[in-house]
Amino acid sequence: MKENAVYYNDYLQLQQLLNSQHPESFKEGNTPAHDEMLFIIIHQSYELWFKQILFEVNAAIDVLNQPSINDNTPALQTVVHRLNRVITILKVLVHQIDIMETMTPMDFLDFRDLLRPASGFQSWQFKTLEAKLGLPYNERYGKEYYTSQLKQPEIDIIKQAEEEKSLLYVVNKWLERMPYFENTAHWEEFVHQGESTPDLHPYWSTYRHCYSHSLAEAERNNLQAFNNIFIQGQTTGQLSAKASRAALFIMLYRGYPLLHLPFELINNLLEIDEQMSTWRYRHMNMVHRMIGTRIGTGGSSGKDYLRAALDKHYIFKEFAALTSFLIERSKLPALPNALINNLGFNI
Amino acid sequence: MKENAVYYNDYLQLQQLLNSQHPESFKEGNTPAHDEMLFIIIHQSYELWFKQILFEVNAAIDVLNQPSINDNTPALQTVVHRLNRVITILKVLVHQIDIMETMTPMDFLDFRDLLRPASGFQSWQFKTLEAKLGLPYNERYGKEYYTSQLKQPEIDIIKQAEEEKSLLYVVNKWLERMPYFENTAHWEEFVHQGESTPDLHPYWSTYRHCYSHSLAEAERNNLQAFNNIFIQGQTTGQLSAKASRAALFIMLYRGYPLLHLPFELINNLLEIDEQMSTWRYRHMNMVHRMIGTRIGTGGSSGKDYLRAALDKHYIFKEFAALTSFLIERSKLPALPNALINNLGFNI
Amino acid sequence: MKENAVYYNDYLQLQQLLNSQHPESFKEGNTPAHDEMLFIIIHQSYELWFKQILFEVNAAIDVLNQPSINDNTPALQTVVHRLNRVITILKVLVHQIDIMETMTPMDFLDFRDLLRPASGFQSWQFKTLEAKLGLPYNERYGKEYYTSQLKQPEIDIIKQAEEEKSLLYVVNKWLERMPYFENTAHWEEFVHQGESTPDLHPYWSTYRHCYSHSLAEAERNNLQAFNNIFIQGQTTGQLSAKASRAALFIMLYRGYPLLHLPFELINNLLEIDEQMSTWRYRHMNMVHRMIGTRIGTGGSSGKDYLRAALDKHYIFKEFAALTSFLIERSKLPALPNALINNLGFNI
Amino acid sequence: MKENAVYYNDYLQLQQLLNSQHPESFKEGNTPAHDEMLFIIIHQSYELWFKQILFEVNAAIDVLNQPSINDNTPALQTVVHRLNRVITILKVLVHQIDIMETMTPMDFLDFRDLLRPASGFQSWQFKTLEAKLGLPYNERYGKEYYTSQLKQPEIDIIKQAEEEKSLLYVVNKWLERMPYFENTAHWEEFVHQGESTPDLHPYWSTYRHCYSHSLAEAERNNLQAFNNIFIQGQTTGQLSAKASRAALFIMLYRGYPLLHLPFELINNLLEIDEQMSTWRYRHMNMVHRMIGTRIGTGGSSGKDYLRAALDKHYIFKEFAALTSFLIERSKLPALPNALINNLGFNI
Question: Where along this sequence does the record place binding of heme (chains A, B, C, D) (predicted)?
Answer without folding.
Answer: 283
